[in-house]
Design a protein that fits this description.
single chain, binds flavin mononucleotide
């Protein structure tokens, strides 16, 4: 019987399914629900020291439906980080760890470009008992206007510096969460590892505009007649997330072996998670999936991942982590390999045709009769 249990950066997870930072980890009530349902770990909604600067609007979500309107393919949000006071969060972190001492609770933190603010938030969260950190360098809307989130994450020098500040005080493992809104995601990821982080998470949401209303001519989600570009998530982003995870995992394998990777983006099933792990992820985060299917979906996803492992006779996640990375190459190499195969097939076909046309040697003694050439041998003797 395979096991989903895994240890990542010293954290013992019963399974790789982690609640991604966002509404599904937005207060103690929902975090404890996630632990009760069996999630491997919970990353709380991103917190900052001063929540008074965080003011949300409504509506702040917009959905992209499939043509039959039965499924939600993509999801845009213009939601900010948590608008709940930091002291309340510290109290809830403590209560959560009291109630679920074995549950892996990860604090997602974000601050301005200020060393004291980053070290203070790390130390106070550690004091409240959290098990590890995710640094939010990746929220694509609202916060960049304050030079936070993706405004930091798209600059590798800033990422390395801020990770260095955090690592100078953090006693718990730290993952840096990457923005996909860059050309080469391996560059800020590399910077996070140079800054000393144990792991990287990818991806956060992709900057997007959901739609323009053809009656009102207003872009959506519309707030007071206007909007601002938001972050796109859900299964529509999965192919992009898989590509980015592959790029980071390839970089980790060659430059930072042993560092960890948390895959995120459109994961809704055990099969989706298996693909991220095959491309090098240690854990798999789910945010929009929980908003679509609820906390109980973790049980289905665990069963699906176990079924995949049983089918391939994998006993542990390590047995298949990164296994599909070996099957990437350059386009030029694909052309070369395909040319080589076609040339081989052509040569084999020519050889077969030549053999078919060659005159059959006459049987000279009864021991020379063969089952394969029997008809031709009979024919040759008739002609001779
Ligand atoms: C409504 C909403 C709010 C989010 N808030 C945060 C946040 O506070 N901090 C963060 O790091 N990521 C946040 N995210 C991003 C998710 O954690 C995740 O990186 C992204 O949505 C892609 O994964 P998914 O397709 O499973 O949702 C949010 C996503 C959504 C949909």
């Amino acid at each position: 019987m395979p096991t989903l249990a895994t240890t990542v950066d010293g954290l013992n997870l019963p399974n790789p399914f982690v609640i991604g930072s966002g509404p599904p980890g937005t207060n103690l009530n929902v975090i404890t629900r996630a632990f009760r349902e069996g999630w491997g770990a919970v990353i709380a909604k991103t917190v900052s020291l001063d929540s008074s600067k965080v003011v949300n609007v409504a509506p702040r979500y917009a959905k992209f439906h499939a043509l039959d309107r039965k499924d939600i393919v993509g999801w845009e949000n213009i939601e900010l980080i948590s608008d709940r006071p930091f002291n309340i969060w510290l109290d809830e972190f403590k209560k959560c760890k009291d109630q679920h001492p074995d549950g892996v609770l990860i604090a997602s933190i974000m601050e301005e470009y200020n060393r004291d603010a980053w070290t203070e938030i790390v130390e106070r969260c550690e004091g409240a008992g959290v098990d590890s950190f995710e640094l939010n360098f990746s929220c694509p809307h609202g916060l960049p206007e304050r030079k936070m989130g993706a405004a930091m994450g798209e600059n590798p020098e800033v990422v390395e510096e801020v990770c260095g500040w955090v690592m100078s005080v953090a006693k718990k493992p730290v993952w840096a969460k990457m923005t996909p809104n860059v050309t080469r995601i391996a560059e800020p990821s590399r910077a996070a590892f140079r800054g000393g982080c144990q792991g990287v998470s990818a991806i956060n949401t992709i900057r997007s505009i959901m739609s323009v209303n053809l009656e009102t001519l207003r872009p959506e989600p519309t707030v007071e007649g206007f909007t601002t570009p938001g972050g796109y998530s859900g299964k529509a982003v999965r192919p992009i997330a898989l590509r980015m995870v592959m790029e980071i995992a390839t970089m980790i394998r060659s430059e930072f072996p042993g560092r960890s990777l948390s895959g995120i983006g459109g994961i809704e099933s055990g099969d989706d998670a298996a693909q991220f792990i095959l491309l090098g992820a240690d854990t798999t985060q789910v945010c929009t999936g929980v908003m679509k299917f609820g906390y109980e979906s973790v049980k289905r996803m665990c069963d699906e991942l176990l079924a995949f492992m049983e089918k391939h006779k994998f006993e542990t996640l390590a047995d298949f982590k990164g296994k599909s990375l070996d099957y990437f190459t350059t386009h030029a190499e694909l052309v070369r390999m395909q040319g080589e195969r076609k040339a081989k097939e052509k040569a084999a076909a020519a050889e077969k045709a030549a053999a078919a046309e060659a005159p059959q040697k006459m049987v000279a003694a009864d021991g020379e009769w063969s089952g394969d050439d029997f008809v031709k041998q009979s024919d040759a003797l008739a002609r001779g």
